[in-house]
Amino acid sequence: MNRMAAMTLVLCFGAILTATESNEPAPDPHCLIKTNHGDIVVRLFATEAPKTVENFLGLAEGAKVFIDPATKHKVRKAYYNGLTFHRVIKGFMIQGGCPLGNGEGGPGYQFEDEINADALGLDKLKVLDEQGRPHPWLAIRSQEDFNNAVLRPLFRLMGITTNEQLAERQQEVNDRVHAMSLKDVYVNQGYRYDDKLKSHAPKRGSVAMANAGPNTNGSQFFINLADTPWLTGKHTVFGEVVKGMDVVDRIGEVPVTNMHLPTDPVRIISIRRVEPEKEQP
To answer: Could you tell me which residues come within 8 angstroms of residue 17 by beta carbon, excluding any fewer than 6 positions away?
Structure first.
């Protein structure tokens, strides 16, 4: 083999190695949430919730344009710096990211959920059990709750608008209700799912988008203090706490008003991207 051939082989093997390395999935981005109670490190699920992660990091790093609620002008700056965790419910979650500090503000736009209901098993969970009791995740405590959550959305889907129509199709309604899954209920309520995504259940340490219903994500997010299965399929889980859960727990214990607002502000000093810590051998 002459020298030129040998060099060609080396170059080819180098190209193969480079291509192999480039095909390896990039590690999930990590971010550091600095608060006046300590630091929280979060791993973001960039593959499972790409639009949500892009939005969160874009706002955090000042790369994304949003509407300043004070001036009503479009601005681009580190959105979360100086905001608060405005809603703290012990044993449940801590919520932040509202520019108004009261849960009513956002960046001036909304975007869609990123959830795979099938991956979360919602297509397998029936609305009613064998005794006719509603699934506990629906949090139904009265007939009116059942009407609002299950029946009225189903009537809209079926085109039932009068009592006479309901009486004529009562058996069809009964059959459909008994066949319905939780996924069906949520789809009837307006949720839309993507079966190409790999979704995570809302568990202790999960970071998820707060919203006001289907596809109303903006800037507000919450961190779970406990598993919250009843939120499954309703909120995009886009990360998890990997360090600083003790800080989250500490925030979860602060004194609050009857509206769950901390009596002393829990401030977000900054949110910035950091390198993932390497696991110790």
So the answer is: none
Question: What is the Cα–Cα distance from 166 to 173, expressed in whole angstroms?
Answer: 8
Residues 6+ apart with CB under 8 A from 99: 68, 69, 79, 83, 105, 106, 107, 219
Helix runs in the chain, H state only: 3-23, 50-60, 143-146, 152-158, 163-168, 170-179, 182-189, 245-251
Domain 30-118+196-274, CATH class in plain words: mainly beta
- For the stretch 249-276, pLDDT in tens is 999 999 999 999 999 999 999 999 999 9
CB 92 within 8 A of CB 228: yes
Domain positions in the chain: 30-118+196-274, 136-180
Q: Which residue has the tokens 């083999």?
A: 1
Whether the pLDDT of residue 16 is over 70: the answer is: no
- Average pLDDT, rounded, for the chain: 92
- 277 vs 279: CA distance, rounded Å: 6
Residues near 93 by beta carbon (within 8 Å), at least 6 away in sequence:
87, 222, 223, 224, 225, 226, 228, 252
pTM of structure: 0.89
